[in-house]
Design goal:
The complex is a heterotrimer of chains A (about 170), B (about 400) and C (about 160).
Chain A lengths: L5 H11 L2 E5 L2 E5 L5 H11 L4 E9 L8 E9 L4 E9 L5 E3 L8 H12 L2 E3 L35 H7 L6
Parallel strand pairs in A: 2-5, 6-7
Antiparallel strand pairs in A: 1-2, 3-4, 4-5
Chain B lengths: L17 H4 L4 E5 L11 E7 L2 E8 L7 H6 L7 H5 L6 H16 L5 H29 L3 H22 L8 E2 L2 E2 L6 H24 L3 H7 L7 H6 L5 H5 L6 H4 L20 H25 L17 H4 L3 H12 L8 E8 L2 E9 L5 E7 L1 H7 L1 H4 L5 H11 L3 H5 L1
Antiparallel strand pairs in B: 1-2, 2-3, 4-5, 6-7, 7-8
Helix pairs in contact in B: 4-5, 5-6, 5-12, 5-17, 6-7, 7-12, 12-17
Chain C lengths: L1 H9 L6 H11 L3 E2 L5 H10 L22 E5 L7 H10 L5 E5 H6 L20 E3 L6 H16 L3 H7 L2
Parallel strand pairs in C: 1-2, 2-3, 3-4
The chains are: A alpha/beta (about 170), B mainly alpha (about 400), C alpha/beta (about 160).
């Protein structure tokens, strides 16, 4: 692990009983959902992580507890280090507290999180869908959401598919 | 097909001021079909006369499902999707994705391939800034800029066509190196460009930089402070125009950027004009990097010799059984990656372009997240347009340099 | 005024009314400035200095659908954009033509997924498909010239039946 990261990870471990693992010089810290706001506030204020680079999730369907990991990728400009915080979330009615008060960028990223994974961010100021139309059913990036593949037309099956293709009228 | 909903104030109650509810201010729809939103962005504006009180961006009109589609393909096949992500920066997208893959499977890249990548990515940065300069000139009434900038951009696209066979969607950078070595004409083509381009930048500057019509519409418009920018996750030239010297090429050098001597243009004004100046200076710096990389371009292989990830050359397949097996396995099954995750980022023309890549032990990615710079850069728009005229909003949007493909993914 | 003089110089031209109308339509076609994705950049290239589409009477891109008679769908059409595209098409005055530029607009291209229409012909009727990802500016110009060929072959009878 990077020398500059060691005291930071130790600090989080002491205060929040978090675990961590390491892969290719990247440190991933696991914390519980209810602690995430405090962890990010601590990191921003005391350890100079000014930038929330990415906020996303990963779906481990059909595993249920935890089904999702919400991922917060942080960067510190002053110390030039990065840190990843992962929050495990259960599959039935997934929820995390919003971090918009810590990083404003989280506003849109959390809307995307809800839109794509159906993970609700409690206390979010503007909980609407962001990318998909409002009347969409389901959350596309979940593993149990179908890709929506349509059969392509080739010479041998052109006519067969052409019959059921929804061509537009004038 | 779903229907278009009429705009209703109640729907946006929490985002507009109270005056909108009484009808004192007006809600105006700008886009998704509007020439100055640079694509299919919809802005819902709350206007008091001609002054913007609130701005509510509505994105997703170009949502392509790239992340989901990439998860359904092998690592090699998923690369073609990255080209179409931010279509001004195709080489950069390839590089960012391939760097994530290389980090995940721990693959080496020979020095010649690294230098070629740097040259092409920097040329792409110039091409991207040229499109920005041309279109933002067009937005502000400088029609001729568009014609000049696209003239030079064609020259760069010709270089891309020379090396990859395609003008825009090159997919030239591959895991472990590049597709194949550049042809002999490459060096002359790049040298020609290096020779003429500095004069052309001067030409652009003589048209715009001190032009009062242009300057008056840019100076003190859309001020973005350092703290707001960082809190909103703004990166790239927009952040550097607000006085933060943060460039991933300097901060966390990749692909041997540490060997090249270049400056990171930074301004402290934080307004639209500062962003313009930063990008113009970046054109010169990128050209400096291209020239140095071309002078130092080492000889040797252009892909890694690790046959588990890089297909063998054609000549080997006829004589070596192993090469044939590797070739077959790579193109039918793909290569497996460990069950873990990496995050790798590069400095794209718009900011930090990061890829979060997670493997599941098989040949397809479990999860790939594209951290695209325009998404966060656009998020700051509602904050900085407040109190400006609608005409200034056009200038601000142009200076942020958004690409909708980058935002909606 | 000058007309008689000119006619005198050039002599009399005889043609059918259909031919005359179609000829004038092809030489002043106003495409709609409707860029969606990657292809829009190639559409801009086709307008810019190197390829210069105005050689074919198309230098005027209109941002408003009400002033245009050719829609170039340049890029992928998402499920959210589909209704907007249809409304824009409905707003265009008759007669109108549509070019599906690029693979995504023609058939979905590489994006065979939940978010993208598998061809814009599911939303609006298409006259000419231009292949390529993205098509080169020459290909787009060829597509436009193909539309011209189509327009030149149209008769009033067809219009009468179409807009009955």
């Amino acid at each position: 692990m990077d020398k500059r990261l060691e005291p930071i990870v130790k600090d989080i471990q002491e205060k929040f009983s978090a675990t961590f693992d390491e892969f290719r010089d990247e440190v991933h810290v696991m914390v519980a959902p209810e602690q995430i706001v405090d962890v990010l506030t601590l990191l921003r204020d005391e350890h100079k992580f000014e930038l929330l680079s990415a906020l996303t999730a990963s779906d481990y369907f059909p595993q249920v507890a935890p089904r999702f990991h919400v991922i917060y990728q942080l960067s510190s400009l002053e110390k030039n280090i990065t840190l990843q915080i992962r929050v495990p979330v259960n599959g039935s009615s997934p929820k995390v507290p919003t971090v918009t008060r810590v990083y404003k960028v989280a506003n849109w990223r959390e809307r995307e999180l809800f839109d794509m994974f159906g993970i609700e961010c409690e206390g979010h100021p503007d909980p609407r869908r962001i990318l998909m139309p409002e009347d969409t059913e389901g959350h596309p990036l979940r593993k149990d959401f179908p890709l929506g593949y349509e059969e392509p037309q080739f010479t041998f099956n052109f006519d067969e598919i052409d019959l059921r293709k929804p061509y537009a009228k004038e | 097909m779903s229907q278009i909903e009429e705009v209703n104030v109640d729907q946006f109650k929490h985002l507009v001021s109270e005056r909108a509810l009484t009808g004192e201010t007006m809600l105006l729809n700008m886009g998704p079909q509007h020439p100055s939103t640079h694509g299919v962005l919809r802005l819902l504006l709350e206007l008091d006369g001609e002054i913007v009180v609130n701005c509510i961006p509505d994105i997703g009109f170009l949502h392509t499902g790239i992340e989901k589609n990439m998860e359904a393909k092998t690592y090699q096949k998923a690369e073609v999707m990255t080209d179409r992500l931010d279509y001004m920066n195709t080489m950069g997208n390839n590089l960012s994705y391939i760097m994530a893959v290389e980090k995940l499977v721990d693959l080496d890249v020979p020095p010649r391939a690294q230098a070629l990548r740097v040259i092409l990515v920097e040329l792409q940065r110039i091409a991207s800034h040229l499109v920005w300069l041309g279109t933002s000139g067009l937005d502000l009434g400088a029609m001729s800029m568009f014609l000049y900038c696209f003239r030079e951009r064609e020259q760069i696209l010709d270089i891309f066509e020379l090396v990859s066979g395609q003008r825009m969607m090159t997919t030239y950078i591959r895991p472990g190196g590049v597709w194949r070595d550049v042809p002999v004409e490459f060096e002359k083509a790049v040298r020609d460009f290096i020779k003429i381009f500095p004069k052309r930048i001067d030409e652009y500057e003589s048209l715009l930089t001190k032009n009062p019509l242009f300057v008056d519409r840019m100076v003190d418009i859309g001020y973005l402070s350092k703290e707001t920018a960082l809190s909103y996750g703004v990166t790239g030239p927009v952040l550097r125009a607000s006085g933060v010297n943060w460039d991933l090429r300097k901060a966390r050098p990749y692909m041997g950027y540490e060997q090249y001597d270049f400056n990171v243009p930074t301004r402290t004004e934080g307004d639209t004009y500062a962003r313009y100046v930063v990008r113009i200076d970046e054109l010169r710096e990128s050209l400096k990097i291209v020239e140095q990389a071309l002078n130092k371009l080492p000889m040797g292989l252009v892909h890694s010799q690790n046959r588990k990830f890089v297909p063998p050359p054609r000549s080997e397949i006829g004589t070596s059984m192993e090469a044939l097996i590797h070739h077959f396995k790579l193109w039918t099954e793909g290569f497996p990656a460990p069950k873990n995750s990496v995050y790798s980022a590069i400095e794209s023309p718009r900011g930090e372009l990061g890829m979060y890549l997670e493997g599941d032990g098989g040949p397809k990615p479990h999860r790939i997240h594209l951290r695209t710079p325009s998404f966060d850069n656009l998020g700051v728009i509602p904050e900085i347009v407040k109190g400006h005229l609608v005409a200034d909003l056009v200038a601000i949007l142009a200076s942020i340099d958004i690409v909708l493909g980058d935002i909606d993914r | 005024m000058g007309v008689e003089q000119k006619l005198g110089n050039m002599g009399v031209v005889t043609t059918s009314l259909e031919g005359m109308v179609n000829w004038s339509r092809t030489n002043a076609m106003w495409p709609m400035l409707f860029g969606l994705a990657c292809c829009a950049i190639e559409m801009m290239s086709a307008q810019a200095s190197d390829y210069d589409m105005s050689r074919f009477g198309m230098e005027l891109m209109r941002a408003s659908p009400r002033q245009s008679d050719l829609m170039i769908v340049a890029g992928r059409v998402s499920k959210k954009m589909g209704p907007v595209l249809r409304r824009l098409y409905d707003q265009m005055p008759e007669p109108k033509w549509v070019i599906a530029m690029g693979d995504c607009a023609s058939c979905g291209g590489v994006f065979n997924n939940y978010a993208i229409y598998q061809g814009v012909d599911e939303v609006v009727p298409v006259d000419v498909y231009v292949a390529g990802c993205p098509p080169r500016p020459e290909a787009l110009i060829h597509g436009v010239l193909t539309v011209y060929e189509k327009v030149k072959g149209e008769t009033f009878k067809q219009y009468a039946e179409k807009y009955k």
